Amino acid sequence: QVQLVESGGGLVQAGGSLSLSCAASGTFFTIRTMGWYRQAPGKQRELVATSGATTTYADSVKGRFTISRDNAKKTVYLQMNSLKPEDTAVYYCNVVFAIVGQYWGQGTQVTVSS
Fold first, then answer.
1. Residues near 88 by Cβ (< 8 Å), separated by ≥ 6?
2. What DSSP state is assigned to residue 87?
3. pLDDT of residue 28
4. SS3 for 68?
5. How far apart are CA 65 and CA 110, in angstroms?
6. Does residue 53 contact residue 113 with C-beta atoms inside 8 Å?
7. Residue 59 to residue 23: CA distance in whole angstroms
8. Could you tell me what percent of the chain has a pLDDT over 90?
9. Maximum distance among all Cα pairs of the chain, rounded to whole angstroms
10. d(CA 103, CA 20)
11. Which of these, 58, 65, 56, lies nearest to 110 by C-alpha position?
12. CB of 9 within 8 A of CB of 20?
């Protein structure tokens, strides 16, 4: 059974930094992409960053967030710097596997105070 376990997040003041990690387990299928999405209250879930054949960032986080991955550990990271109150959201890990498709993490809260 595929599991995505997220860690990190929390409360930080504007201008601060946080890091997230997400470890995948329970399958031997090849990982195609690993990424992060977020959902703020009253808003739709949106892409933050993905890492696959290419690396993609939302315009709103370019230059502030960095996605990285450790393929041996099946883990993806998100380093978030210069955080803004508008970055406040629940952040979800997303992993796309060959054959079995995509899975989501349980979500972790990131709150940035002004």
1. 40, 110, 111, 112
2. G
3. 86
4. strand
5. 13
6. no
7. 25
8. 96
9. 44
10. 17
11. 65
12. yes
Tokens of 96: 């796309």
**Amino acid occupying residue 16:** G
Count the alpha carbons within 13 Å of 103 in the hemisphere toward its beta carbon. Answer: 22
The pLDDT of residue 27 is 85
Distance (Å) of CA 54 to CA 20, 26, 31, 33, 80 = 20, 25, 14, 9, 19
Q: Is 20 within 8 Å of 77 (Cβ atoms)? A: yes
Cβ neighbours of residue 75 closer than 8 Å, sequence gap 6 or more: 21, 22, 23, 24, 69
- Token couple for 99: 């054959």
Which segments in the chain show pLDDT lower than 50? Answer: none
Report d(CA 77, CA 69) in Å as an integer.
6
Distance of CA 106 to the CA centre of its chain: 11
Residues in the chain: 114
Contact 48, 37 (CB under 8 A): yes
- Backbone phi and psi for residue 107, each to the nearest 5 degrees, phi listed first: 95, 145
